[in-house]
Amino acid sequence: MTMWVFGYGSLLWNPGFRVGERVLARLPGWHRSFCMRSVHHRGTAEEPGLVLALDAAEGAVCNGVALSAEPGAEEETLAYLRERELISSAYVERILPVDLADGRRVEAVTYVIDPDHVQYCGNMPLEDQARIIARATGGRGPNDEYLHNTSAHLAELGLSDPDLEWLSARVRALKS
Fold first, then answer.
1. Domain boundaries, the chain
2. 145 belongs to the catalytic site
3. pTM summary value
């Protein structure tokens, strides 16, 4: 059985595992948002950054990519993803139905935010997000690099995300 993973942030440009198939996909009931404080990868405990997470919302849809693990590498892929994504338990691993652009519906491993976790910061104004992202740096590099990479890859895929586009432009302006 094929193991699918839904990518909506850094998995778009840095999956970190061997991908068998890559298909544009939609996840209903969730939206992509900088709603998680990053104290490891894109910020520190002293100066947290922000990373994307899927936040549940009635009527929302998140456009992203479904990535299948290369056949035979499912266990290795899942172990890698858990080490990467579950570093602070702010993300919760869920298996959710995802609609692929080619008409298939698959069940995909998806990492969503726990709204009760201390790192959750949903509904933060975009200007506040931009100011945090412009200055934070963590173990995987500058927070703005994460934003710009994700925004650029969404644009390359033809997936519009007005909030990320605005944030990317605003962060560039703040840093110039």
1. 4-175
2. no
3. 0.93
